[in-house]
Structures are given as C-alpha cells and as structure tokens.
C-alpha cells in the first residue's frame, strides 16, 4: 500500500472530535487532513483524490449524505466512511445506498474506527456484488422465520426494540430474542454489519 492509500480526509464540525480522530490516525501512521465542513473538502480536494473520507453524518449546512452526493456528482470515487450517532440507522442505510462503503456508530472504540478505515482503503471502491460473503448472507436471510424477517426489516429501518415491539405487537423482550436469533442465523457480528449486508443485498 502506497502512502496515497494512507490518506484520510476527516470532516466534522466538532473540533474536539476532529482533533481526537486526527491524533489517533496520526499515531497509526495515516496522513490526515482535517475539514470543518463538507464544503471545505469539496473546495480543497484535488482530482483525482487519493485516500478515504471519514465524515460525520450530522453537520450544519452540508451534512454527510449531501457531501457524499456532491462527491459522487463531482466524479470522486474515493471510499467514504460515515460516523453516525446512536439511532441514526435510517441515515446510515441511506448513506450506504448512496455508496458509502461503511458507517461507524459513535461512540466507537479506536480499533473499530481503524478497522473500518483500513477496509475502506483496501476496497477503495464499492463492494463487488459477487462478494461470496454477500451471497452467503442472502442465503442465510432465506433461513429466517417470517417473524425474524419482520424484526430484521424493522431493525434495518432503524427501529428500537420498543418501537419494533409496538409495530409487531410483541414485547420488547421478545423482540430481543428474535433479534438474537436472526443475528445468529445471518452471522452478522453486530447491527452495523447487519445493516451493511442488508443494504448491499438490496433488502434494506
């Protein structure tokens, strides 16, 4: 991997967040460029640009989704990882549909962030639909019971256990049980992975 691959463009309107992410990535040997707003990134990004973009999803003016749209419209293909807040699953799903390669939920641990960026830089492009892991995931979805599939659909839509329980008329506790079952059956490590697979498989 050349140095160009190690470049991360960090976009976040929160200065403390920018600084802490920059410090972490710097200690890991990444080259980091910081931007306070999506418009700064769009103005300063050379063409063709190398590296990956790490952006917060919720920002004033140009949010992460709009930034992603504008990057793609300007012909930039560099991989984008979204930082989302708790409960931003519907936004993360939309970001994945727009071509973000991953999202990571705040507060995240350092290792999770590094992992997301490394795989983004390795992929440096949308995941191939022929990904064997994806085919396997689609096959596993077929093994879900009707109720598990309903819970999956609600989870990917961003529902909490309480909300899903209301929609499906079951207790939040029962939702948790179905959720555990469907996570086991799909072999998704966490909600983030479940959502990512679901989007790539076209079921979100």
TrEMBL record:
It comes from the Bacteria. Residues 137-202 form the HTH luxR-type domain. Residues 7-121 form the Response regulatory domain. The gene is fixJ. InterPro entries: CheY-like_superfamily, Sig_transdc_resp-reg_C-effctor, Sig_transdc_resp-reg_receiver, Tscrpt_reg_LuxR_C, WH-like_DNA-bd_sf. This is Transcriptional regulatory protein FixJ. The modification 4-aspartylphosphate is found at residue 56. Signal peptide: none annotated. Keywords: DNA-binding, Phosphoprotein, Transcription, Transcription regulation.
């Amino acid at each position: 991997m050349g140095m160009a691959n190690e470049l991360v463009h960090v976009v976040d309107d929160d200065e403390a967040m920018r600084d802490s992410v920059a410090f972490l990535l710097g200690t890991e040997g990444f080259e980091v460029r910081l931007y306070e707003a999506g418009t700064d990134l769009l103005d300063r990004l050379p063409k063709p640009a190398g590296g990956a973009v790490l952006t917060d999803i919720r920002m004033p003016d140009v949010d992460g989704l709009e930034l992603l749209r504008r990057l793609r419209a300007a012909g930039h293909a560099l991989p984008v990882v979204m930082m989302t807040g708790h409960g931003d699953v519907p936004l993360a799903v939309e970001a994945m549909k727009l071509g973000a390669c991953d999202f990571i939920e705040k507060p995240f641990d350092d290792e999770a962030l590094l992992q997301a960026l490394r795989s983004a830089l390795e992929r440096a492009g949308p995941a191939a639909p022929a990904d064997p892991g994806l085919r396997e995931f689609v096959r596993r979805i077929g093994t879900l019971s009707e109720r598990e599939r309903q819970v999956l659909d609600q989870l990917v839509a961003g529902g909490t256990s309480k909300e899903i329980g209301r929609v499906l008329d079951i207790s939040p506790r029962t939702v948790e049980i179905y959720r555990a079952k469907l996570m086991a059956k799909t072999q998704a490590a966490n909600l983030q992975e479940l959502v990512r697979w679901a989007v790539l498989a076209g079921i979100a």
